[in-house]
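Project standup — Tuesday

K.O.: blocked on the structure for the chain from last sprint. Re-posting the sequence here as requested.
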Amino acid sequence: MAEEQEVYLTAEGLKKLQEELEYLRNVRRPQIAKHIHDAKADGDISENAGYDEAKNEQAFVEGRIKTIEALLRKAIIIEKSEDTQEVRLGSSVTIREVDGDELETYQIVGSAEVDPAQGKISNVSPLGKALLGRRVGDQVTVQTPDGVLRFEIVEIS
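H.V.: unblocked you, prediction finished:
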């Protein structure tokens, strides 16, 4: 059997997963069970779209519950570090494209917590990998679908 891979989470990410798990178990499961019960009460389930939809939703929710439980079992909490000398898991990093002026800030998180819209990128993404272990003033090169980009680290917090 394959060895389970560690899942890196910030304290915030851990809390969000725990809250989602609690919601799925205590709110969605009972709602879906009621939908299934109500659909069965409508009679023949072989051609009952409401029943089929509820069963599909149940499968999705149960799968998500299992996924979250597995993530939480393998979770390693990213400790907040006061060391801002180099980029680490959990660091917020402000970068700018070399020869550019626009600043972008990203937090380096584990892959279970990625949310690009919120500026959270994975430690295993091309940019995340390139930034880890680097210091303010360092330049990194990243292969993107649009070609090679070079960034300078402006700040680490």
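K.O.: great, moving the ticket to review. The chain has two domains: 7-77, 92-156. The chain has a mean pLDDT of 91.
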